Amino acid sequence: MGSFLNVTLFRYLPGTDHSPRYETFEVPESKQMAILDVLTYIQKHLDRSLTFRYSCRIGMCGSCALFINGRSRLACRTLVDGLGTKDIHIRPLPNLPVIKDLTVDLTPFFDKYEKIKPYFIAKEDREDFYRVPEGAKERILVDKMLECITCGACFSSCTMVTTNPFYLGPAALNRAFCLIADKRDGAGAKRLRLVNGPEGVWRCHGQFNCMEVCPKKIIPTWSIQQLKKRCVFKKWMGIG
Amino acid sequence: MKHISQTKADILILGSGGAGLLAALHAYDTDPSLNIILAVKGLAGKSGCTRMVQGGYNVVLDPEDSHEKHFRDTIKGGGFINNQELAWTLVTDATKVIHELENKVGCFFDRRPDGQVHQKAFAGQCFDRTVHRGDLTGIEIIARLRDQVFARKVRILEECRAIDLLVRDGRVGGVLLLDIRSGEPFIVRSKAVILATGGGAGMYKISAPSKEKSGDGAAMAFRAGALFVDMEMMQFHPTGLLAGNSQLTGSVLEEGLRGAGGRLFNALGERFMERYDPERMERSTRDQVARASYREIMAGRGTVNGGVLIDVSHLGAEFVERAFPGMVDRVKDIGKDLAREPIEVSPTGHFHMGGVSIDRDCRSNLEGLFVAGEDSGGVHGSNRLGGNGVAESTVFGARAGDAAAAYVSEVPFPLFDEDQAWDIWEETQRPFTFSQGEDAYALNQELKNLTWEKIGVVRTKEDLEQALGQLDEMEERAQQIKVSGSPCFNLEWNEALNVRNLIAVARMIARSALMRKESRGSHFRLDFPQTDNAQWLKNIFLKRQGAKEIDLYTAEVNFSRLRPEEIV
Question: CA distances (Å), B332 to each of A58, B216, B237, B263, B303, in order?
Fold first, then answer.
């Protein structure tokens, strides 16, 4: 111990600051230090004007995703040790407008998320629960993809999102897949039409950036492939 | 210019945890023409503790289980001082609400091999009734609820914190809020306010809640003149992770670990629960286990970092990794392997059972103010069972939404006092006017240490009196906090506002704890270590008197459904 980290942060208050800038801080390293701890230290001890966002600090809320050393990740679950360097460079998530310093406006992300009708629409009124055996085949894929915390890491890392402002993006499409594959939901056909287009599943070029950065180990590319398969199948059957 | 921008709503909901979101859904579905605003201190559905629920949701589903049994467990766990009508409402409505969550909201809970919903074992319960999704249940519940709110015309204001309720002649007529991003104030005038901001357990040095929970709801309700019940009842979860200076410290390792057979050891390798509850051992209630751990640590039998050890390795690494992947993952972040070695844990400030006194429809003593979830009190008595928390927030959130929707259709827009709003706003801004003053972060740290040592797991008359003296002084100092920089998204300013509220809640806890001269549930008095059923089958009520004094009184518990002697 006794060593220091060189932490470079993006600083910007739109409307007040003429342009963004970077500032570097020297932070004493401590044991099991996460990036969230680094930012908290800077904010408390070095520069009170720094703004960043977090809430649960245990990887469940998805409020603290940042672009850390060239990659989108959760500040609370990224250990300094794991970065393999004392030079740390932090920016707000790409592909989203900055509110102040490291905080972004997630509106574009959620606008697209809302486009696929992300809410469950029950197929039928039921009194009891659907009987679905543990480990049922129909749930295997969905269950793996269900734990999205809408942190925006995938959205910020997708080059297709960067190059096409209308592309729905990985999180929205993953959510669409979870609902379409959910036998309890009654709006699958409608949703499939929503995602079956040049701004939907066909925009994905299978680069897997989303998978690489997802803190919940979700593979949106996989969900998107499943959706493509269903779109093609519908076309074959002449019902698409 | 004395002007603050105003907007109007039929219902204003503060908070987007389980209570706030269900209130929004139910109010909207009762009457889609209502103008509903949901204001959130953080991001919608991302702040608060429902999302952090790990273990699950207690609910009666199995034909061999019954509402009577769940009720009995809840009352027994609560040390017999629960409001029995609220507890009965909790257990009976939970069955309805869990079906709503699966079949209407779209949550998917874990299943058994036969296809039925799986229910796991939780401490303090006579039946395995905890519905869950893996060991990170809250994500599924809150994400699906948020998706449903998106589908409805509910106006969501993110990163807008409530500063104070605006009250005129005992009628709540709206709320003064701060838009955290712009630093500007605004007023929402509303016929009804639903308070669902979550509790103030974050005031403790070691604590579990998410960052934005700073007792805002309780503090605002106190200043507005609301009636509170059993504020001394603050739960410490027995297994908070110890991770040094890291923010991970205090985060909860879920109850299911003990439910599944996890063992607790002190530094001497003794399974110390034998001394405290030989029958139930680690599956004893949270209050018992937390206190036992605390006393081991205080007696010098704790680890060097001031903890005890939880060990689940004997259950088999493969089982632990499959049943508790979220916990295994989290522990990995401190360089340890939950499936294969003991992990250092400590009691951690977790949940406030005390809160605003409400009726079954979440009405408070203040006209127009509905309170749901952790901001309210009485449901859990002196100790909450694991798995009853998310049940409470969803059950009472739904009821608050229904009741508020019915209420606003019958009442006119209340009057409010613009001068009052302006005075509060001037006070709120004052930290920017000082060139020197108190440091918000230092004061908060001081508060954390004080609450942990003097109004925490173990309490005495001397400690509580000292704490009250210090809290009075800290309240003065909180008026002198200096904040600098732009008001836009200013974290230091928000910390100052948080500290002020936490101190207000801490004072209520200390005053109430001083009055209860016995030990019950989560409230333990070293000078009165016994539970005194002859004197203290009572609730302590309190409210503000004058500018800042606290008026307390006790009332016998109303055993409307079950008497303590009927419970064995």
Answer: 12, 33, 21, 19, 19
